[in-house]
Amino acid sequence: MTTHAIAQAMKQVEAVLRKEPERGLDDDAPATARWQGGTRVTASHANGAQMQTDMPAELGGSGDQVSPGWMFRAGLASCLTTCIAMNAAAQGIALDTLEVVARSRSDVRGLLGMAEADGQPVNAASRDVQLSVRVAAAGVSPERLRALVDASYRRSPVPCALAAATPIALSVEVAG
pTM here? Predict the structure, then answer.
């Protein structure tokens, strides 16, 4: 889709939402993960798209697929990249380069349910999360590009969910 087409689509949606704001809240497509044995999992979208995950060999997996933690970082990076591209289109900025790298550090002890020396459980969450953006657009000032990235980050759903520590409701059904 061209920059102009993206901008037009966004304007049309915004016009509808100005008249009917309640239409802005929608159920997101669920992600369904099914265990395939060992540490291999298939995550599926309602449209049929699938992604395989597995753990590294040192944690009992095959190491031949991406890990769920990598999918988390990929979600952060791709969400911000998409948001920047959409906002650039809305502003009439023709991007030449756009790349987002998501990095984090994790303590495997948390995944294994281990505790610190003082008995406190080690947090399994990623920490030291970093998003690095490389962006360029001919004839656009660095200040404007930085503002574009900053505004996009502040309204990018996946980074916002992480920054806001969105609550998660867990329900369990014991089968069979």
Answer: 0.91
Would the pLDDT of 81 be above 90?
yes
% the chain with pLDDT above 90 = 95
Q: Residues 67-107+124-164: name the CATH superfamily.
A: K homology (KH) domain (3.30.300.20)
Count other Cβ atoms within 10 Å, centred on residue 39.
Answer: 19
- Domain positions in the chain: 31-66, 67-107+124-164
**Rounded CA Rg of the chain:** 20
Confirm if 57 and 129 have CB atoms less than 8 A apart: no
User: What type of residue sits at position 82?
Assistant: T
> Which residue, chain included where needed, has tokens 């988390």?
72
Classify residue 60 as exposed, middle or buried by CB count within 10 Å of its CB (0-12, 13-18, 19+).
exposed
CB contact at 8 A, 26 and 20: no
Structure token pair of residue 176: 């069979």
Q: Which amino acid is at 159?
A: P
